[in-house]
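Lab notebook, page 48
Experiment: co-folding of the full assembly
Goal: obtain a model of how the components sit together before planning crosslinking
Operator: M.T.
Materials (sequences as entered):
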Amino acid sequence: MSTSKISMPKFNLRDKFGDWWEGTTRNQRIIFRVSLIAFFYILPFLDNPVFGTTESDFSSVLFYPMGMYVLMAIGLNIVVGKSGILDLGYVAFFAIGAYTHAILALSFGFNFWVNVVLGMAFAMFAGVLLGLPALRLRGDYLAIITLGFGEIVRIVAINVNFTGGAAGLAGIPAPPNIFGVEFLVDDPRPYYWLVLTLTLLVIWAYMRLIKRRPGRAWEAIREDEDVAEFMGIATTKYKLWAFVLGGAIGGGAGAVYASQVTSIVPELFDLNVSIMILACVVFGGMGNLWGVAFGAALLGYFPEKLRFLSDTRILFFGLLMVVMMNIRPDGIIPRKKREKVYDKNTGKEVSR
Amino acid sequence: MDFSIVVSEFASLFLDGIVVGAIYALVALGYTLVYGVLRLINFAHSEIFMLGTFACLGVTMLLGYTGFEEPIGIGLFLVTFILITFVAAVASGSAAMLLEVVAYRRLRRKGANRLSSLISAIGASFFLVELFRLMTDSKDWDFPRLLDKNSLFEVSSAYVTADKLVVLIGAFGLMFALDRIIQGTRLGRGIRAVSQDEKTAVLMGVDVDKVIAFTFLLGGILAGVASSFYMLFYEATKFNVGFLLGISAFTAAVLGGIGNIRGALAGSFALGLIQQFSSAILGYNWRDVVTFLILVLVLLFKPTGLFGEAIQRARV
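Observation: model returned without errors.
Model output:
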C-alpha cells in the first residue's frame, strides 16, 4: 500500500491555531493561559439558555459526563493515541479507582485524598499485572484481551463479597473540605472544580512528559514498533508505562466519581464506558491532547443538550467511530504531523 | 468445588459440551475465514450472529407462533426449521457483506493502518448492539418450543434429545459443505490464494474485492445458521447475546490457531467441553472468567494456537 503519500487535511484547526501561537510573545501566552483556565473555573456560573442544559443541571453535566470524559479521554489518549495500543478495557481502571475509594472509605475510614492516590496506585498495579503479559501481543489480540479484562473486573465485582456484589456499595463519603470548599451531595460544582484541577495537573504532567524521551518513544512505537525496537527503544517498557499511566488517570477519575455519586454498582462499569471514552479519543483526534479534550467535552455535552441524543448516545458514538475512521481518521483536531519536507533543489529542510 | 459431579454427570456434560462446541464452531469459522483473508479480527462478527437470532425470532412471529403452542411434528418441524435457518442465513450473510462495505472496504483501499480498521469495526459492532437494544426494548425474547425436548434415549447420564441431534447433524453437514466450497469452487480457491499471499493472488488475476466479499458472506451465513441452532437449543435471545458467544467463539478460533479452519473446529469442541466441565465444578458464574483465562493463556504461551496459524497449511 502507498505510504509515501503526504496527507494534506483540507481544514486543520490545529495548524491554524499553531501558526497564531508561534507568533505570540511570552506575556501574551501567559495571559491566554490564565484567562482560559479562569474561564473554565467560572464555567458553572455561566449557566444560560444558550449553552446551559435544560434536561439536567448544567454544573452536574460539567462534572459528569463532560469533566469525567475529558479526564479519562486524556488518560486513554496516552495509551491509544500516543502509543497506538488499542485498550478496550479502560473502564477496568475506572472501576478499580471507584471501588478503592468506596471500600477503603467505608471499611477502614480512609480519607478521600489518600484513596485517590491509592486508587491510582491499585490501577497502576492492575495495569502492570495485565500489561506485562498482554503487551507482548499484537494490536487486535491486545484489544480482545483488554476487552475481556474490562468484563472480568465487572464480573468479579458482581461475584465476590467485599465489593457488595451486584447490589454494590452505598453511602460512599465525600471528600473532606479543602480551602473552605465544602463537598455537598446536592452541589456538583466543587466536584467539577476538583476534576478540573486534576485535569489541569494531568495536562501539565503530560505536556512535560511528551516533550521528553517517553513521549518520543511512544510516538516511535505508534508509527512502527519494529523500527522503534531496532533503534534501541525499550518498546515493552515504554508501552507498559503508557498503559500504566493511562490506567492511573482512569483510577483517579474513578475515585472522584465514586465520591460524587455516593453509591456504585458493577453495572456502572460496563463495556459502554470504555467505548464512549474511545469514541471521545477517536473523535477529537488520536494523539493530540487538545483535540481529545475538546472532542470529549463535545461528546459529553451534546447528549445532555440534545434530547434525541441522550437515549441513543451509544448508537451515535458507534456510528461516529465508523464515520470518523472512514472520512477523517485524524479526528476533528489532528495531531501535528512531524514530517520533514525537503526542498527538491537545495535539499534543505523547509517548513510546510 | 464439587468434583464428584464430573464423574456422575460425565456423559451429560460431554454431550452438552459437544453441542455447544458445534455452535461455537460455526461462529468461530467466521472469525477464522475473515482473519485468513484480511489478517484482521472481525470485531462485529458477534453482532452478525446476534442479528441472526432476531431474524429467527422474526420468522416464528410471522408464522404466528406465540410461544404457547404444543411442539409440532417432526415433518412440519423440519420444514419450519429449514425456513427459519434459511432466513437467518440470508439476513446474517447480507448484514456481513454490508458490514464489509461500510466498515472495511474504504479503509482497506486507502491502505489505512490496522488500528483504524479495528476502531471502525468496533464502532460498527456497538452501533448494531445499540440498534437492537433500542428496537427490542432491552428485553429477553423467548423462542417458541418447536421440538419436543423429552429424551429420545439415554447414554449413561446423558439425555439425548432431538434438538441436540439436529444441532449436531446440521453443524457437521455444514462443516462438510464449507470444506467442499473452500476446496472445490473457484471462489474457494480464491479465498485460499488471498490467505496465502494477497499480492501474488492479485497478479494471478484473483479479484480480491470479490473474494473478500464472498468470505464475509460465508462467515455471515455460518453465523446465521449458528444463530438458528442456538435458538433451538437455548430458546432465548437478547440484544447482548453476541458478546459472550463472540468471545467464546473467538477464544475457540484462537485456541485452534486463528486462520486455521480445522483448528477452529477442534478448538470449538475443546472449549465447549472445558466450559461445561468447569461450570459444573466452579459454578456457572465463573464460566466466562474461565473462557477468558484460557484465551489469555493461549495467547501468552502459544499465540499460534494448538494447530498453528495458517489457513493454507491446513488444506481445508
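Interpretation: DSSP finds 13 helices and four strands in chain B.
Next step: discuss with group before ordering constructs.
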